[in-house]
Predict the structure.
Amino acid sequence: MAKNTICLWFDKDAEAAARFYAKTFPDSSVGAVHHAPSDFPSGKKGDALVVEFTVAGVACIGLNGGPTFKHNEAFSFQIATEDQEETDRYWNAIVGNGGQESACGWCKDKWGISWQITPRVLTEAMAAGGAEAKRAFDAMMDMRKIDVAKIEAARRG
């Protein structure tokens, strides 16, 4: 296990979420699944309790801790994409698997984890600053999934 690991609290579906992430994003995998040694408040002996996994190279564990805590937008994975095809692939995988769209390149998977599917052209425009950043930012504000062509057009003015 990595020295620093992101721990995500799930009601009961940490393993299903980890397997979805592993099949959706490159450099992602599911490692060990640790089962509860005895009954616990939201599960039984033998249930999956902790799942080790990696999402796009980031070490994570999923804890099946029950319904007490819910995910919110204070935490999100940001996935940098190279083009519209890659943006569409990740967006559609998340939203098409019971997730929901939000604004400005954000969506949420069916387990409540927030994702920012962010084309590099957008982050490059923001880094450029000035009028170029403002045009790209203004264009983004009207989007759900980021439209690469519209961001590129906004960058050019």
